[in-house]
Specification:
The protein has helices at residues 27-38, 54-64, 73-78, 93-102, 117-130, 144-154, 173-176, 193-197, 199-202, 206-222, 318-328, 338-356; strands spanning 18-23, 44-50, 68-70, 83-86, 106-109, 134-136, 161-170, 226-234, 243-250, 255-262, 273-280, 284-288, 293-297, 362-363. It is α/β, with parallel strands linked by helices.
């Protein structure tokens, strides 16, 4: 992964709005990231936007007020930006994120972060060398419900985690089957089918498109590291799979079952169904986004079920874009860090390799030979 540096002049002022560039302004950028940023015009200046398609490019630039619009992402970087959203097709994330970091911009990369764990860790190291912030668009991790679970796991906690059960069902069937329909996407800019249905661009199906979210929740909440994965996918992993089933072993000996499935559009109001059950040596925690439920149970201690408003588990898309601005201002945004993203990529990379090998266990060790 070699990307020549692009020289820019950084905005050194802490008071001036951060100059934003967008590489890959598709449906999700239009539906989630740009509306969130439009709410804080004092914090961000929309400088440049890049996407393919002259008509679509002109439309989104005019719609949001970008000064520069180009089908060449280097034109956006040369304009001089402080923060960058990379939302191009997954196979291009590594190239575009590296170029933005070389240009001196803090970066929010859409999920899946990269298709290769080696690329993911290279980007983490590059951001560290450049003293820049690198985030991945894990919106669930910014939600109050997730942050409350994070705090509960640290106090009072459940002891050493022994077992993990994670299930995710989301309405990605139509999108991954070749359609351009996905709940929450932009009506002005529907998802481009090749982004999700062309293996050379998407890299995979449900794992990369959806399960990456649930894995990011799990790995951030627990700080667990996966040691090896046995995976099965349907259809087979050589195509765009709709369903993913993983058996995992974690460092330290914990075991887990992880399952992700493409639901039919409209089921349960098209809400994401994510359930995580963690069993530890001193208790267990259950977080259920589909039912707005969170409970920590300790058999000889406090039983905690905080009251949650209806809709607490509904996905909110404003966290990642606003988190990018916060990170650029110096705030800690570990809930969506590039390092977390790299750990997620390790799992998915091993899962796809295992599925192609008829479920044989695949170690993540080669991906982290030189990474903590």
């Amino acid at each position: 992964m070699t990307v020549p540096p692009v020289s820019t002049t950084s905005n050194g002022s802490t008071d001036a709005p951060l100059r934003l560039g967008v590489i890959g302004a598709g449906s999700w950028v239009d539906a989630m990231h740009l509306p969130a940023l439009a709410e804080v015009p004092e914090r961000v200046e929309l400088v440049g936007v890049c996407r393919l398609g002259d008509q679509e490019l002109t439309s989104i630039a005019t719609r949001w007020g970008f000064r520069i619009a180009s089908e060449n992402y280097r034109d956006i970087l040369r304009a001089g930006i402080d923060v960058c959203i990379v939302a191009s097709p997954p196979a291009l994330h590594a190239e575009h994120t590296a170029a933005a970091l070389h240009a001196g911009a803090h970066v929010l990369c859409e999920k899946p972060f990269t298709l290769s764990s080696a690329d993911a860790w290279d980007l983490v190291e590059l951001a560290k060398r450049k003293d820049l912030q690198l985030l991945v668009s894990y919106g669930f991790n910014f939600m109050p419900m997730t942050r409350l679970a994070f705090d509960l796991l640290r106090s009072p906690g459940i002891g050493e985690i022994e077992s993990v059960s994670l299930t995710m069902h989301s309405t990605a069937r139509e999108l991954l089957s070749g359609g351009s329909v996905y709940p929450g996407s932009s009506t002005a800019f529907p998802p481009h089918t090749d982004t999700w249905n062309e293996p050379s661009l998407a890299g995979g199906g449900y794992g990369h498109a959806q399960l990456t979210h649930a894995l990011a929740i799990l790995l951030w909440l627990t700080d667990l590291r996966v040691a090896d994965v046995s995976g099965r996918m349907s259809p087979p992993a050589e195509t765009i799979e709709l369903h993913t089933a993983l058996s995992v072993r974690f460092d330290g000996g914990a075991v887990g079952a992880i399952h992700g499935s493409s639901s039919h559009l409209g089921f349960n109001g098209s809400r994401d169904q994510i359930s995580i059950i963690l069993v530890g040596s001193k208790g267990q925690l259950h977080i259920d986004y589909g039912r707005d439920d969170l409970v920590l149970f300790r058999p000889h201690g406090q039983h905690i079920r905080p009251p949650l408003p209806a809709g607490s588990g509904d996905y909110r898309g404003d966290g990642p874009a606003l988190g990018l601005l916060d990170a650029a201002a110096g705030d800690d945004v570990a809930c969506a860090s590039g390092a977390l993203g790299a750990r997620v990529v390790e799992v998915l990379e091993a899962a796809y390799r295992s599925a192609r090998a008829a479920g044989a266990p695949v170690s993540t060790a080669t991906a982290r030979t030189s990474h903590p």
